[in-house]
Amino acid sequence: MSEDGTLDTASLARIFLTRVIEPGDEVAGRWLRDHGPEELARRLREGGRRLPGVTDKRWAGLLARAARAEPERDWAAARDAGMRFVCPGTTDWPAQLDDLGDARPVGLWVRGRPSLRMWALKSVALVGARACTEYGAHIAATLAADLAERGWVIVSGGAYGVDGAAHRGALGAGGATVAVLACGVDRPYPRGHTRLIGRIAEQGLVVGELPPGEHPTPSRFIVRNRVIAALTRGTVVVEAAHRSGSLVTARAAGRLGRFVMGVPGPVSSGLSAGVHELLRGEAVLVTDAADVVELVGDMGELAPDRRGPVLPRDLLEPAARRILAALPARGTAPAAEIARGAQTTQDDAVGRLYELRSLGFVERHGDGWKLTRQAVTAGRQDHLPC
Questions:
Q1: Is CATH 2.60.40.2100 correct for 112-296?
Q2: Per-residue model confidence as pLDDT tens digits over 257-279
């Protein structure tokens, strides 16, 4: 497509090729690189000598598809459905998709007004199990909402489970989200997400490689995942069994040099087993939006330090804490015994004990010293033997 939005011959050839070539076909990608879209389209229309890398049977299948392809009709149907076609090299093309090499999409069909290139510059993929638990749906929605509020675009596959929760989380926060489909973007799938995908098209973007009316297949779901991985700075997996398609997305992200992240779940849950396997290898454990942004964001966007609450004894000097630790949990002890336990002199121990008494940690009983109720409670909170 030319910059003024009109259809040129190269774009028309690419539209033709989306009807003939399956997404992710690296052999056809080499043909496209070697011959260009117009010459490749001409050879497929005219038939003739088979191009290298395919069998006669496969070549015949491609020619049969080419004979039925009607790019002008596809373009008219796309415009009627509010779609546009984005080609490599144009201003709206996300350059990071070029990292896919010969598996790069021929072009992308897009529903929605925002710039795909601009949105992809600050985007995170959030994927996971279709049959997710309430925990998975909650984590996905919360993570997506928090990332969206920080200005990040949430990219997912529009499916049931984690995908849908992620899209809804972003939309609910008034943020940006992109659904990458394994079918024609005028044909929402799954059908149960027709309204959700419609909302995404209104507030965000719906993207796909296949021309109008094309249906999804198992293989198309798998190759679609490479686009999700390449489009974003990193992929977060929330709940995934050992054979989950979301692991395909994560591993594609790793091969492309993107960040791979996983949210842990219960060790007894089969739906988290695939995530835990990732976390043992190439993935980084994340628990919230701050963890994700620390990885995919700009330099200096660090997650806050993780620590428990500050307890009163944390504010004491080390020498005073040693004296406090030397007191028995019950009953009293003389200053000399406390000094031996803290490995200091008796005079130093007495001075520290009077300091601790002024702070409410100890009290004196005759010649002995004992912990106050405050000190005993604080010691339990700090998991010290009190």
A1: no
A2: 999 999 999 999 999 999 999 99
Angle between helices 26-46 and 56-68 (to 10 degrees): 60
Domain boundaries, the chain: 112-296, 312-381
Q: Which of 241, 318, 328 is nearest to 278 (CA)?
A: 241
What pLDDT digit, counting tens, does each position of 155-197 carry?
999 999 999 999 999 999 999 999 999 999 998 899 999 999 9
CB 196 within 8 A of CB 166: no
Rounded to whole angstroms, the Cα distance separating 324 from 304 reads 31
Do residues 323 and 352 lie in contact, with contact meaning Cβ atoms separated by under 8 Å?
yes
Residues 159 and 137 sit within 8 Å (Cβ to Cβ): no
CA 45 → CA 13, 66, 67, distances in Å?
11, 6, 6
Given CATH 1.10.10.10, say whether it is the number of domain 312-381: yes
